[in-house]
Amino acid sequence: MLHRVRSAVAHLVSSGGPPGSGSSVLPTPASPNPIAHPVAPRSPPAGAERGTRASGGAVENRGSFSRPTFLQLSPRGLRRAEDHAGRVVQSPPDTGRRLPWRTGYAEVINAGKSRHNEDQACCEVVYVESRQARMGGPGKSISDQGNQGLYFHYWGLFDGHAGGGAAEMASRLLHRHIREQLRGLVEILQDPSPPPLCLPSTTEASVSLELSCPGGSQPCWPLQKEDEHMAREQRNQYAVGGCCALVAVYLLGKMYVANAGDSRAIIVRNGDIIPMSREFTPETERQRLQLLGFLKPELLGNEFTHLEFPRRVQPKELGQRMLYRDQSMTGWAYKKIELQDLRFPLVCGEGKKARVMATIGVTRGLGDHNLKVSSSTLPVKPFLSCFPEVQVYDLTQYEHCPDDVLILGTDGLWDVSSDKDVADTVDKVLSSFEPNDPSRYTALAQTLVLGARGISREQGWRLPNNKMGSGDDISVFVIPLGGAGSYT
Amino acid sequence: MLHRVRSAVAHLVSSGGPPGSGSSVLPTPASPNPIAHPVAPRSPPAGAERGTRASGGAVENRGSFSRPTFLQLSPRGLRRAEDHAGRVVQSPPDTGRRLPWRTGYAEVINAGKSRHNEDQACCEVVYVESRQARMGGPGKSISDQGNQGLYFHYWGLFDGHAGGGAAEMASRLLHRHIREQLRGLVEILQDPSPPPLCLPSTTEASVSLELSCPGGSQPCWPLQKEDEHMAREQRNQYAVGGCCALVAVYLLGKMYVANAGDSRAIIVRNGDIIPMSREFTPETERQRLQLLGFLKPELLGNEFTHLEFPRRVQPKELGQRMLYRDQSMTGWAYKKIELQDLRFPLVCGEGKKARVMATIGVTRGLGDHNLKVSSSTLPVKPFLSCFPEVQVYDLTQYEHCPDDVLILGTDGLWDVSSDKDVADTVDKVLSSFEPNDPSRYTALAQTLVLGARGISREQGWRLPNNKMGSGDDISVFVIPLGGAGSYT
Question: What is the maximum span of chain B, computed from C-alpha positions, in angstroms?
C-alpha cells in the first residue's frame, strides 16, 4: 500500500493526478484562491510594456516572444537574449532574489535554426490549498477549517518546436495544473496512515467542476490537461507547435522527475551518475509506434507502412527479400518485398535524423495538435504521447553534500555532452567554489551551457576539440540536493 | 550490421524466421528431405501399440497421453509416470544413449490438479539442410551442390493447460518449424561477411511454397507458425488447450533462449545467477493487455473494463472515488466510479491468482484458440501473444567449467524455489560428483524436482520447512555449458 501512495503521488505531480479531483478550467482571478502562491507574470513580449499581459490562461499572440520571468530581462536584455550571432549566455542576475534552493540556471539561444529561443523554463514554489479548505469559501480563513495546505517545489524545461507557443504556454500553466490536481490529495498526503482504496463521493461544487472536464470521466493528468488545453488553443490557431516537457517536483521528501520528450535529467552524487529520465524518440519508441500503426492502420492512410526497413525500398526490389522489423521484433529478419512495403516507413532514420512519418523527431510532449504530414492531410498527433515517464528519488535515503546536484537539460546540452562530460564539469566547477557560495550553481549551469555552445569561429560554433558545438537552444537547471539549501 | 546478424538469428531460431523462407506446410514423408536429422517418434499413447502413430504433422487423439521419447518408458512405466499418488520422479534411464551435451532431465506429475502430466519436453540435435541444396532435388547429393548444412541443439519445455494437446503438439513440431525457417539462412549464417540488406528473389519452387503460407505475405515465425498450425487443428477440436513454451537453441557458438509464458530459464555460472528469461503473466503484462483493450474496446464486449482496481467495484460505490490504474500508469491514482467501472476488470488478482478476463493466468504461449470467457462467447485469444522474448548468450565469451549450467524449468519448479535456492542446489549437487561423471546433471535435475515436489505427508506434499510443495507438474532441464561435453 505504501507503494500505492508513492505511485499515486508520482502520477499526481507529473504524469497523473486524480482524474476526478480537479477542474479543467484553470482558476481565474475571480476564483476563491486567497493564499495560493502567486504565480509571477512572465517577462513581457518584446515591444510590449510590462504589466499589460493578460494573466491566467491567456495565450501569447503569435509572433511575440518572451523569456522566463526569473531572468528579469529588460526589453533591451530581451533583445540581446535573442541575438543569434552573439549567443550570450543568460542567467538570473546576481542581485536580488535567488531561485529556490539556490538553483542555478543558464540558457542560450540557437545559432539561427529558429527565429526565437524555443526553449522555455519555469521555477516556482507552489502552495497547494486543500480542496476542503477551499470549499469553505473565501469568507473563511484556513484556521477556521483546520486544514493545512502543502508546498511543492517545481522546475520545468520545455523545448519547443515549430514555434515557441506550446513551450511558452506549458511553462506558464503546467505547475498550475499540477496544483489543481494535488488539491484533492492534500489530506491524504499529510496523513501517515495508508490511503483508503475508496474515497467518499465529492460534494456538489466539486462534482460540477469535474463535469466541466473535457472527456467527462476520462482521467485527466496534468500533462494531459495541459495538452487538452493546448488542443483547444490550437484549434484557434494560438500556441502553435509543440514542446518536450521535463519537470522536477519536490514534495514531502521526494523528488519526482517526469519526462516527455528528448530532454534529459541526471543526478550527480558523489561523482556517480544516476539517470533520472530516458529520451522518447522514434528510435526508442519504435515498437510502441509500430504497434499503434499495426492495430490502427487507418492512422497510416495509404501513405505509410508500420514496418521498418534498413533503407527505403525501391520498386525494382519487389519480390526480393529485405531485412525488416515490426512491432514484435527487437532484431531484424528478411521478408519478401511487396507492393505495400514501398510505402514510406512510419519510423525511419537514425539518431537525430530519426523521424515519425518523416515529420517529427520526438515522440512525446505537448501540443502538435495541428501537425500534419508534409503534403498530406494525415495528422501526426495520434502517434505522439503526452504521457511522461516518472522517476522518483527519495532525498531522505542519502545524506547529500553541497556538490550533489540534479541536472536538467534540453537536448541542446546532451547532443554534444555525455553524462560523463557533465559529471566531470560538475566536479571541476563546484570544487572551485566555496560550498556555501550561493553563485556556484549558476556558475555551473553557465559552464555547462558554454561547454555545449562552444565558441564562434570562422567555421561556426566549435568546441575546444574542434567538433561542432550545439547550434540548438540550450537550457540547463542545476538543482542542489544538499548542503546550505533548506527544503522548506 | 553484426547486430543484425545476431538479431536475425534470434528471430529465426525462436521468435522469428524469414517470413518468406519457409513453407507453412510441414514436410510430409513424401517431401524430399533425404538427410534431415530423423525426428524420433514419441512414446506411444497409453494403451496404443508402439509404431502405430502417424508421423509428421499428425495430432494426438483427445484423451490419449504420452511422455517424452527420451524417457524410453514402457507402457507400464508410462502408467507409473502418471500416478498422482506416488509422484515418482522420471528421468532418462542410466543405460543407453544419453541426451546431447549430457543434458540432465527430470519430471514429476502433478498432485491431482489434472488427469495427465500436461508438461512436455523435447531435446534434439537437428540438422538444417540449406534450401539451395534441397532444391537440387533428391537425386543430387550434398557434395554435388557444394553446400554444407548446419546443426542446432534444441531443448524445449511446454507447460500445457486445459488439456495436454497443445503442449504435446508443440513438443513434437516446434523444432521442425525452426528447422524449416532456418533453411533459407544456412549460407548467410555460414558466411563471415555481413548479411546483405536485400536478397535476390527466390526461385519459383520456393515462391510457391510461400504462397501456401496462411496470411500470405505476413511474417511467419516458428512459434507463430506453430500457433497457426494449432489454430487449424483446434478448429477441428484437436489439440485442445494451450501451452507455455520455453526453448533453448544452441547455434554457432550462441545459446538463444526464447520464452512465451511463465516457465523460467537461468544460467548458474561460477555461483552467479544470470536470468535468461522473464515471465509473462497478467501482472507483468498488464499494460500491454490494457493498451490492447483500450485501442480495441470491441475485444472486451460489454463485459470487461480495461481499467484495473485494487478490488472489485461495488454498485453502491458509484460516484465515490477509487484507486485505479490504466495502460499508461505504473502507479495508482483515484478516479470517480462510473457505471462502466462496474464491469469485470480485464486484469485482476495477484500472484498465481492473477487472471486475464477472469480466465487464464499466462499471457503468452501457443494454442488457446477455442478459449472463451466463462459463460460468454468472448474469445480470450486476442490478448494472448505467441511472441516470445529472446535472450542471447554467447558461449564463446567465457570459459565455462563443468559446474556452469543453464536451467530450464516449468513454473512447478519456480513456484516454490527461488533462483537462489536453485543456484545453491546446483552448487551442492554438482560438487558432490566428479566433474566428468556423466550422471551428475540428471542427478541435479532430479534433486531440483524433488526439492520442489517435497514429500508426501498427511497434510499433502510438504517441503522440509513444512511449507507446501508444488502440486503442479514439474519439469527441469539441466544443460551443462562447459567441461566434458563437446558442442558439435
Answer: 79
CA A144 and chain centroid, separation: 38
B-chain residues near A338 (CB < 8 A): 217
Distance from C-alpha of A107 to C-alpha of A410, rounded to nearest angstrom = 10
pLDDT of amino acid B321: 92
Which residue in A288, A292, A328, A391 has the most chain B C-beta atoms within 10 A of its own C-beta, making it the best mutation to test that interface? A328
Angle of helix A419-430 relative to helix A440-453, nearest 10 degrees, comes to 140
The x, y and z cell numbers of residue B156, run together, are 524445449
ipTM field: 0.76
- Provide the Cα torsion B173, B174, B179, B182; round to 10°: 150
pLDDT (tens digit per residue) in A48-83? 333 323 333 334 444 467 899 999 999 999 999 999
Residue ranges covered by each domain of chain B: 2-8+74-132+150-192+212-279+385-487, 287-361
Contact call for B336 and A20, based on CB within 8 A: yes
Q: What angle do CA B446, B450, B453 make, to 5 degrees?
A: 140
Interchain CB distance below 8 Å, A16 and B331: yes
CB–CB contact B184 A19 (8 Å): no
**CA angle in degrees (0–180, nearest 5) for A182-A188-A189:** 65
3-state secondary structure of B356: strand
**Amino acid present at B206:** S
Residues of chain B falling short of pLDDT 70: 1-64, 133-147, 202-221, 236-239, 483-488
A287 and chain B in contact, CB less than 8 A: no
The answer to whether the Cβ–Cβ distance between A197 and B323 falls below 8 Å is: yes
B187 and B130 Cβ atoms separated by less than 8 Å:
yes
* B335:A210 CB<8 A: no
Taking only Cα atoms into account, the Rg of chain A, rounded to an integer number of angstroms, comes to: 23
- Name the residue facing A4 among B7, B217, B332 (closest C-beta): B332
A301 touches chain B (CB under 8 A): no
**Which residues of B fall within a CB distance of 8 Å from A3?**
331
- Contact residues on chain A for B12, CB-CB shorter than 8 A: 333
Which residue is listed with cell 484556513?
Answer: A142
- CB-side neighbour CA atoms (13 Å) of A188: 26
Name chain B contacts of A18, Cβ cutoff 8 Å: 321, 333-335
Q: What is the pLDDT of residue A230?
A: 80
Q: CA B486 → CA B91, B102, B120, distances in Å?
A: 22, 10, 26
Whether residue B18 and residue A319 make contact (CB cut-off 8 A), yes or no, is: no
> Is A37's pLDDT higher than 60?
no
Which residues touch A394 (CB under 8 Å, ≥6 apart)? A253, A254, A255
- The CATH architecture of the domain made up of A2-8+74-132+150-192+212-279+385-487 is 4-Layer Sandwich (3.60)
Interface list for A 372-411 with B (CB within 8 A) = 385, 387, 390
Of A210, A186, A207, A201, give the one whose Cα is nearest residue A19. Answer: A210
- Nearest CB among B3, B200, B319 relative to A320 is that of B200
| Mean pLDDT, rounded, of chain B | 82
Restricting to B residues 155-184, those with a Cβ less than 8 Å away from any Cβ of A are: 184
> What is chain B's Cα-based Rg?
23
**Does residue A160 or residue A30 have the better pLDDT?**
A160
Closest Cβ opposite residue A322 in set B198, B291, B387: B198
Residues 6 or more apart whose CB falls under 8 angstroms from that of B429 comprise B440, B443, B444, B447
Could you tell me if B82 and B117 are in contact, meaning their C-beta atoms sit under 8 angstroms apart?
A: yes
Number of Cβ within 10 Å of residue B104's Cβ equals 28
Angstroms from B282 CA to nearest CA on chain A:
18
Of B19, B202, B317, the CB nearest to A198: B317
